[in-house]
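hi support,

uploading two proteins for the ticket. first:
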Amino acid sequence: MAGTVAGAILAPAPALAAPEPRERSVAELLTDLQRLYRETEQATETYNATEEKLRKQRAVVTRLDAALSRARLSLHDSRGAAGRLARQQYQNTSDLSPYLRLLLARDPQHALDQGHVIGRLARERAATVGRLTGTERKADELARKARKALDEQLALAQRQKKDKEAVHKRLRKVEELLASLTPDQLTAVAALERQDIATAQRAFMASGALAAADDKPSRKAHRAIRYARKQLGKPYKWGAEGPKSYDCSGLTSQAWAHAGTPIPRTSQEQWAQLERVPLTELRPGDLVIYFPDATHVALYLGKGKVVQAPRPGEKIRISPIASNPVLGAVRPEIKPPKPPRGTPRSSPAHRSSPRSQPGR
């Protein structure tokens, strides 16, 4: 009996069949895909910011190296001049004081003239030594700054490498998810995304956010729009600034650069540094910033449309303004300064408006 009980206790329990993994819904797949795309764009903008800092740091290093070369050349010249003066002083050394030479001189006036010459040479010697000392200090300071700038450049290069790896890691996740989907799932996800964008666009336009928006671009904005439109159909590529491919902020920064107004490279810096305008005052050429952390940007065309470099695997295209959650808008053009009081007002086209807070 005991053996039977023991056997019953020790006998392995029958294996239970593992539950079949639940197939994710189309909505869940779309959510996952959009999250991965957004993470990729966040990593891309981080890479772009580091690349921009590295570009500026390289310019600093180049400038300091050039200044250090000039300082070293000047130091070499100053040392040569100091050496020549030292040799002259050695060759003209006399145990007689200037006063005794004056008393013993056959021509006292000539001796006085010589004294003036000797005094002038002494002042020149002092000036040469002063220049030498100052140049040495300057060269030492420039060498210190150049070493520090180079260290910062190397640190930025290391950070850029890590940022690049982060982008590749997120791109691989996107590719893995897309590869795991069947053709029917891919079709369904794309259809649901189009439906969501259409719904968001209808709600956005019905809200009246663009009711008072001006559809007349300025001259520079027109040039930026024309440039952006010429890029339609070119592929999105992270970190790219054209001319064959672009990422989102690469497109907007290049469009305005070609219009004659350089702007920051990344969407986050564009949001942080450019003049913010409410959506009710949006006009063609303004930049629409997306997501709470400002990681996507598009160029406004008017009538609720933008041109954008959407994401990896897609091409530059015209899209509804509500394709992504709108954070606000910025205007790249610099406002003219306000005229002093009493100055006659200029035409309305040249009047400046007070700084606005972003529309939401």
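and the second one:
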Amino acid sequence: MGREVLKKPRFQAAVFTLFYLAICFVVFSVSLRTAVILFATFTVVLLLEPWARFAQKYFRIKRSISLGIGLTIMFAGITLLIVFLTTPVAKEASKFYNIVRDFFPSVQEAEITSFEVNANIDRFLSDEDLLAQLSHEEIDSLDLLSKDLKNYFVDVMRTIPANPEGLEQDLALLEETLKERSDYLVIVSSSKHKQASFDEIHGIVANYLNPEVAESLSAIVMENAMIVQSQELWKDVVEYFMPKNIDPARRRATYESVRNFLIQVQNSLMKFLPGILEKVPSFVTTTGFVLFFTIVGAIYLSYYFLTVKEFAPRLYPKRIRDIALNFLSDTYKNLERYVISVVLIALIVGIVVGIVVQSMGLKYSLLMGLWAAFTNLIPIVGVPLEIVPLVLLAVSTQNLVLVLILLVVLVIVHAAAFILFLVFMKGYNRINPVIVILMIVVAGQLLGLFGAIVAVPFGIILKMMWIHFFSPMLEEEEQGQLGE
């Protein structure tokens, strides 16, 4: 029985397909940057192919010219977005972080990070009362002042090496204590930091601002720059939804339960959120590198894509090539339709969310629009990731009616987006939402955020394997048993 299965053409085609998928997985695992470039290149080609067919059919434009037009428009648009949006988005991200922090409870034992210190400095320098006391020249110099203050606190937060003389004495004593053993390891660390100085801070601020303002601002920076502060806006939300006639003991218990839960969420966020936001300034360099090689790869792959499609079936032995060709053709059509659907819907949702945020009088519409577009590239799981920051932004206004209106609008937007996705994918294979969530979780654990994005395309490939290879084999087995 086992040998008969091994000889089946569909089983052999499945084995070859799994082998090639394993190679792709190894490449993706070894170098994330290479994986992103390859995935981005293939995605660009999948977006260009329908345009090339459309231009040839309706505009009678040659394939090479239509591909050139598509590549130029796509990458020119992406380049302009990166050049002109990275700086304002980075600033909005820094300010929005303050809103996130103001929502959660104050925790005295919270460890301050360099990003939070920078966020505090940005908050001090953007205060309206401060700006009202400055001249135009002083306002123009705030960016330089911000840079100098941040550099100063980087030096303050740098760990001071242990005292060499005291360290030698401690090591000698430790060596005497452990002289009977030879298998020990000594790890020396220091948790000491330099103390911030008012005079040093005032010296920096006085270089840019008038003496009166420099004095007051230096005091504010000295007292509050290295403190994790919060307005605890969560209390307003709990108060709004809590019944007015609730028992005082239950009220206190409810507040305490919500506070403990939010502290746990806050601790989870603080483990990675500052680190992510600190990397925003380096986004331009990394993206530029990826974009350059994606452009080069997309140019070559798009122009030779028809040749690649003809060659792909030759990766399989000749006797199973027809089966492989049907699988590859069906898989390509489904991947193409899925990529187009997801990208279009992500762009539409991002634009709509940005307009909604702006029309409701909320700040950071650019950041929220880009975040909505990005999170919608991750099906199902991306929606809550999109909604949470939007709700926190609305809550920061302390207008809970506005929060409810925003939630209703978001429900309508995503209901329309879901219907639009079904229309785009009509006639094509879709994956069960439960399986999608499981695949995103698993791929996210293996490859991080990039894994969450590629999980569904990988799931489409597996489903096509089931339809073309495994399901027909099982049906043949059942038919054989019925015939006997």
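thanks. also noticed: The mean pLDDT is 83.
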